[in-house]
Design brief:
The chain is mainly alpha-helical. The protein contains 4 helices and no strands. The longest helix is centred in the middle third of the chain and has 28 residues, at 53-80.
Length: 108
C-alpha cells in the first residue's frame, strides 16, 4: 500500500470524508410563502425538509408571519375606519323600518 492511500484511508475513517457536495437550494422558495401565506409555507416546508431543514423552517415561519401581519393590519383598519360605523348605522335604520327599496326597470 502506498503511503498516501494509508493516510487517505485513515482520515476517511476518522472524518468520514465524502466526495459529495451539499446541494444549495434556491432562495426562490421564499416566494411561495410570500404569495400563498401559510399554505405556501407548508408546501415549501414539505418540499425542502429532507434537503435543507434550515430553509424549510424559514419558509414556514415566513408564511405564518405574513398571515399574522396581514390579519393585524386588516383588523386595525377595520377598527380605526368607519366600517363599523356604517354597519351600526344600517342596523339602526333597519330596526326602525323607515326605508323603502325602489327598483327602476328601464324598458329597451
Amino acid at each position: 500500500m502506498i503511503w498516501w492511500e494509508t493516510i487517505s484511508a485513515t482520515f476517511g475513517r476518522i472524518f468520514k470524508v465524502t466526495a459529495q457536495t451539499p446541494k444549495i437550494r434556491s432562495k426562490w422558495w421564499y416566494l411561495l410563502p410570500i404569495f400563498l401565506g401559510v399554505i405556501g409555507g407548508v408546501i415549501a416546508w414539505v418540499a425542502l425538509k429532507s434537503y435543507d431543514r434550515k430553509l424549510a423552517k424559514k419558509c414556514l415561519i415566513l408564511g405564518v408571519s405574513i398571515v399574522v401581519i396581514e390579519t393585524m393590519i386588516l383588523v386595525g383598519l377595520a377598527v380605526s375606519s368607519d366600517i363599523l360605523n356604517i354597519v351600526t348605522e344600517f342596523e339602526t335604520i333597519s330596526e326602525t323600518h323607515d326605508f323603502d327599496i325602489q327598483f327602476k326597470i328601464g324598458a329597451p
